[in-house]
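#struct-pred
JK: can someone run the complex with N-carbamoyl-L-aspartate? inputs below
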Amino acid sequence: MQKEVLSKPYLLSADDLTVEDVNLIFDRVRYFEYHYSLGAKFNDLDGYTVALAFFEPSTRTRISFEIATQRLGGKPILFSSSTSSLTKGESLIDTLHTIEAMDVQIFVVRHSASGVPLLLQRNTNKIVINAGDGKHEHPTQALLDAYTIQKHFGYIKDLKVCIVGDILHSRVARSNIILLKKLGANVAFCGPGTLLPRHHSQWNVPIFRTIDEAIDWADVIMLLRLQNERMDSGLVPSLAEFSRLYGMSLERLSRKPELVVLHPGPVNYGIELQYEVPTFPTVLIQTQVTHGVFVRMALLSLLVKTYEFRAR
Ligand code: NCD
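RT: done, structure tokens with the ligand placed:
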């Protein structure tokens, strides 16, 4: 019999997920996609309040968690650090306990410091989900990327996925490499030496120095933004040079029309991606966003089940 709960009642890292967990989540995604398209209503989060605690800017991740919560009959509350008592010196842990005292059971946390979701999880018995912490991890993005790949090809094992651009500062890259490798994909990096993780040999992945070599090798190219807010200056010689060596253009894509292109957003057009490229049918950036809501619905629903199962 298939198990109905996840191995952990929280999600801080892609490493918290087993292959069985991922399969369970993907089954649930398919269930929600199908029944939602028929107009079904869901009540998996009935009685649950979800705090969306975003200490860093976000469009896609915050809105998709908010919509996912609402579609499951839960109540999302938005917590904004700049208008909270954190500005009056209240600590993060005090803030957590204050919100907890109002009967909030799920915390979705984004923070510029790596490790904040873990710190909060260690100080609560409620559900904590990492929505991106510093340069560390962004596991729900990796889940929705993997789901998009799985749905497009019908499988993930043995596919070649090359992550291109600013890998050093990317939590998306880190979660993706963990999850994709777990699911049996071959992962490679492509970017200037200054934007590769310092100890990239520990990942044991092929490195490509130009996007043309990466395109020749890959089934999937995952583009990343230059994350200037986390970057010391001078890591790329010029944006034009970066774009020439690592940017995706229509011309490059036309060489291999079956190549799938992903990007977690936000896109900086004219740098890692030319304006016209998203019109190409194998560029799945909008599809990723759509999948993001269903993946977060599946995750929230399963985490609540897991939490309730453990509380019995
Ligand atoms: C990413 C993030 O915030 O980590 N975006 C996202 O969540 N979809 C990537 C980025 O900031 O470039």
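RT: quick notes.
Strands lie at 49-54, 75-80, 106-111, 127-133, 160-164, 186-190, 207-208, 220-223, 260-262.
The domain at 139-288 is CATH 3.40.50.1370 (Rossmann fold).
JK: thanks, will look after standup
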